[in-house]
Amino acid sequence: MPQELVMGNEAIALGALKAGVSVVTGYPGTPSTEILETIAKRNPGDVYVEWSVNEKVALEVAAGAALAGARTMVTMKQVGLNVASDPVMSLAYIGVKGGMVIVVADDPGPISSQTEQDTRQFGVFSKLPVFDPTSPEEAYEMIGQAFQYSEKYQTPVLFRPTTRICHASVSLEVSSERLQITPEGFVKDPKWVIFPRLSYQNHIKIENRNELLAEDFADFKGNEIIGSGDFGRKGIAAGGISYAYAQEALALLGVSCKLFKVATPYPFPKKLAREFLQDVDEVLVLEELSPYIERELVYLSGKYQLPVKIKGKLTADLPCAGENTVEIVQAALAKFLGLKGAGEGQALQNGRSLQSSQDEASPDIELPARPPVLCAGCPHRASFYAVKKAMKGRKAIFCGDIGCYTLGNAKPLEMVDTCLCMGADVTMAQGLQRVEPDCVNFAFIGDSTFFHTGIPGVVNAVYNESNIVLVVLDNSTTAMTGNQPHPGTGQTMMGSISAKIRIDKVLEALGVKHIALANPFDLAEAQKVVTAAADYKGVAAVIFEAPCIQLFKATELYYVDKEKCNGCRLCIKELGCPAMYMAEKKAVISPSLCYGCSLCAQVCPFGAIELLGTDGGGK
Question: For residues 72 and 100, what is the distance between their CA atoms, to the nearest angstrom?
């Protein structure tokens, strides 16, 4: 088989193609996005792929195909599972016919998320089996096994990679063979219609099924007890990427230890876990994010009266939040195994301090903080600034949403006062308006997010006669996760061109009477439409239309005329554009970052910022 350099998300996608998946749906969200994109890119021609409008829709589309016997996969990140949880909970009771894998990428850290949710806990809540790969290589094989278990037990299953699994790159042997599965088609049966009495009966079946699954998982290839180790009756239990960290840390320490690897955390492989516990007196548990494995081992120790001391997050031997690292695991292992220097966060390898060797290789330099910022030329900066200028002197609250525009909360803009979850800007603004009716309540939402969960909030605002200003930041893409299409772009993941769904027409159909479209880079006009919207009684909408800078190449650039610039720094203090900086007490625009948006030129009171001519001079 040919070797390919692939990232973890690509490995999951290729494993699903190998397993015969035929319908793949999802909503983009880091760290899961590349899974569906790889399916679309490597589509053999008979796989249906779609970016759905949100995770709930994606789950339901895939569920319909699974009831017809197709192997289906849904992709999302951990907060997307919240959106999909309603159909997930009911589908857990109904079951499926074709294999259905719900890939939920968790984001310990969190690196690019609102929360540090642990999908293993959702597995317990929904009573759905959970698969937890420890490497991209294992994910490639495990996704096929997940389909098999889904079909064997006629249930959807959860597949939980984390950020480091999703984004790691490995050299992988990729099979060109693909399992061919012909769906039987939908067979009418009362069991597909959920009723209270049927749910009661199915609940009993699910509990019995999960007991069988726990026994089955004891023999699952990914669950295993490895080695005897150098430390007698001390052992390590680990799952996910933390297992890989444990192996690397032990190698750095130059020691070995008995390992219990957990690849299917729910239903927990109790038989194998009990076998492991019977051979140890003390266990260190390594996992992200919650102490899930730790609690299971504590429970089993108590149930079977096994005198085993379990250490981990609950005992403060590992951090209770954030992602693990090799360094964190190494320090915890050194302390647990009683190695010299553990109290100072050091470890020994062949009698030499690893800490001292690392210090020799890399001097102790404090790196500067690099907070995320809106790109130079980003239309969201112009939109926020226009609203800020228009509302100067007026009492206003700015409700934000999830996307690039969340960065509008940072100085110098400071234009996002609240941010909860996708779509919550529209609804939270309504709640704030009920308490502070004398305030102008704004709701900022992106074009993709408008289709995701923004529309019901607008319906609620119109129906309940709220006074809010909805500001749709339409940059013609789903920018934050990598420029995926959405219903407003007129493109699909299958490569077809569809009719663009116009946001202004949707708002009009929902009953919004005051709708204005504007170019945010025309600062004077943008301020004018914002002021008019703020003065309107009822639901007013402003749609700022300007494409994301990733969609086009800059053709016109700006520069600062040093003779006219007096060094007031107003352009920098007002906008915070990363293309601008001060040098020799004068403002400077970096030509490699400028996108020619012209906003700084409109802000400068001295006309010192001008369009750069093709000959390198000013026009």
Answer: 5
